[in-house]
Amino acid sequence: MTDEQAVQKIMVGSVVAGRYEIRGLIGKGGMGEVFLAHDLQADRDVALKTLHAKYSQSRHAIARFGREVRLARQLNHPGIVKIFDAQKWENTLFYTMEYIEGKSLRAWLQQRRALDLGSTVRVLCLVAEALEHAHRITIHRDLSPENIMVLRDGTIRLLDFGLAKIDDQYVGLTVVGTNLGKLRYMAPEQERDAAAVDHRADLFSMGVMFFELLTGRSPLPGQKITEVIPGLPPSADLFVAKAIARDPNERYADAREFREALLAVYRDAQAAGPIPAGGPPPEKKEGALARLLRRLRFWKKG
């Protein structure tokens, strides 16, 4: 049986590994597909994530998969999704985790276009708290709005913690493949050698997300966030510059320092007056006279 045939067997109504009844497809990600399943033994709904067939052909990937799942299962924090089980079934690697009812931070951002400073600080502080716990054991290395779930009660869950390490030997394939959109969150040192990064790579991703959540766009090299949102305090520029510094030694030392600096930016914004809403200021419509003068200047240059 080919890998493709094995993957095709996972469909609504099928029972995986004699235990997990598939109820529906939740979505597809860079590493595989995610299904809603019912655990017949534990009598609870779970999310079942399959890994791409390329992993099942590599002993190294399988061994790393098992190791990273074991590490992830040691994480015990309300901001990190719980992993229950991991197996290889019909030539398909999969793991199950708690089923989260909410929406990804990406979906939230797309719905709102940009977030206000208060919402951005609250979400990223919750993420930083989860990172502070997790970095004692492992690192994420794939932080992005897609991997952060926002629940109805305002809490968050980090997904796929540590499992990005499995993809080390496929970095070249990932760069030219389905994971291209996540490169903007990747620290420079991770692009050079994914296996050698430390926890500060996660902090780089957080800095990029801070800029994106507030402005609706990724930061350009050397760009100040106050150029996009003038009402933010100058400390916001310093925060972004340190968070996404190319040299990891110039970034925040750990998630706690990142969170404290983030809260300081919020306090500075409060002290300065009304906190500006997220997103760039609306563009002013160009009047007829201004358009005429611009055209005349262009004509004279020509």
Structural topology:
Layout: H1 3-8, E1 15-16, E2 20-28, E3 33-39, E4 44-50, H2 53-56, H3 59-74, E5 83-89, E6 92-98, E7 102-104, H4 105-112, H5 117-134, E8 148-151, E9 156-158, H6 171-176, H7 188-192, H8 200-215, H9 225-228, H10 234-243, H11 255-272, H12 288-301
Antiparallel strand pairs: 1-2, 2-3, 3-4, 4-6, 5-6, 7-8, 8-9
Compact summary:
The chain has twelve helices and nine strands. By secondary structure, the protein is α+β, with helices and mostly antiparallel strands.
Q: Mind explaining what this structure looks like?
A:
It contains 12 helices and 9 strands. The protein has 302 residues and is of the alpha+beta class. It folds into 2 domains: 96 residues, Phosphorylase Kinase, domain 1 (2-Layer Sandwich); 171 residues, Transferase(Phosphotransferase), domain 1. A 6-stranded antiparallel beta sheet has the order 1-2-3-4-6-5. A 3-stranded antiparallel beta sheet has the order 7-8-9. Helix 5 runs antiparallel to helix 11 and helix 8 packs across helix 10. It starts with a helix and ends with a helix. 37% of the residues are buried.
Give the integer mean of the pLDDT values. 83
The CATH architecture designation of the largest domain is: Orthogonal Bundle
Question: How is the largest sheet built, in terms of strand order?
Answer: 1-2-3-4-6-5
At the fourth CATH level, what is the homologous superfamily of the largest domain?
Answer: Transferase(Phosphotransferase) domain 1
How many separate domains? Answer: 2
Overall form = globular
Helical content (DSSP H or I, runs of 4+): 40-55%
The main pleated sheet reads as:
6 strands, antiparallel
CATH class of the largest domain: Mainly Alpha
Q: How many E-type strands?
A: 9
Oligomer: single chain
